[in-house]
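User: Last request for today: this protein with KG4, please.
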Amino acid sequence: MNTGADYSRGTTQATEPGEVRNVTPGHGLTVLGLETSCDETAAAVVRLSDDGVEVLSSVIHSQIDAHAAYGGVVPEIAARSHVEMIDAVTRQAMKAAGLGFEALDGVAATAGPGLVGGVMVGLSYGKAVALARDLPLMAVNHLEGHAVSARLGAETRYPFLLLLVSGGHCQLLEVRGIGDMSRLGTTIDDAAGEAFDKIAKAMGLGYPGGPALEKLAASGDGSRFDLPRALLGRKDCDFSFSGLKTAASRLAQTCETEQDRADLADAVQKAIARQLAERTERAMLAYAEVHTERLFVVAGGVAANQTVRRTLEDLAARHGFRFLAPPMVYCTDNAAMIALAGAERLEKGLVSNIDVIARPRWPLDEARASADPVHKKSGRKGAKA
Ligand code: KG4
Ligand code: ZN
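Assistant: Here's the final one, the structure of the complex with KG4:
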């Protein structure tokens, strides 16, 4: 099928076939993964075998250029672009892997959480491939993909403590294995990346704001700003960034010089890093009571921030945790992580029905999410994931 895909409206990145990295017992499963939950149309082929995890191809088409003018992701534009790109991106991934569809053992697609119009595109496409080729379908939770993403880049054995920090999510998870994860904390309002993006927007920086704010902060000294510290007295591992966002946005109005703006950017970055570290420290103390193997993984786009990374690395060292962050290409949204989660699910026999639905909200740890009154299924305070 020729979709008339227009690559000029975004950027497409393809990763060459990777080396075998992870030693995991398995029987050699080759899985196509599809990711369309936000503003990246991605497809990847991953092989899970006795020799480990091998990324045969990973293609990511970013829509950032199409959304930049609006200062954020526009769901309708995203969904339309996924429709236009999904077939071409998938074919490119299959070609780069050097495989035909008959070589696949299964198809995995993100089924939520995310912008539902986009999720439906990837999931429907995955169902079509599964039906046409008589393959098992694995509906993958996007967060589960991020949770396994470290296994794409380095040998990473379960269990581990995970901090997932992206534009849509901010969670601490105890990851014991595929389909076996508990949430230790989540945000009660914005995600950390969302805070970076919204504050950057208030400061007149471009989209996505996180990288722009980090660049500006490099020449700043935020010590003269006293930004609020949320939920300090609480003992849980939840996050809140809305107070910081409001305070920083107000301060942005008072900045007169470029140096003022750089100082504010530095203060914001350090405040976000500090909150991430404070909650992660609580989670580490709880985790260390149960596990002797201490591995801490940070994943998601915000893990690209050097201040955040250094702060967390220091924290891990202080508490005797080994620190691991996936390579950037697997930190931000990609389909290799979805394919790997799908392959691990297939290995365990966790296959989905073909009528599985796309879910805009889908907590990874459903028991914890519904037991916690702060995170109702709907309403202003409903956690996005
Ligand atoms: O994981 P990701 O690509 O997509 C989501 O699943 O959300 O994360 C994107 C988020 C954006 O909010 C972006 O501003 C943030 O990660 N981000 C950063 C940096 N690079 C990306 N935030 C702070 N500093 C950075 N260098
Ligand atoms: Zn993501």
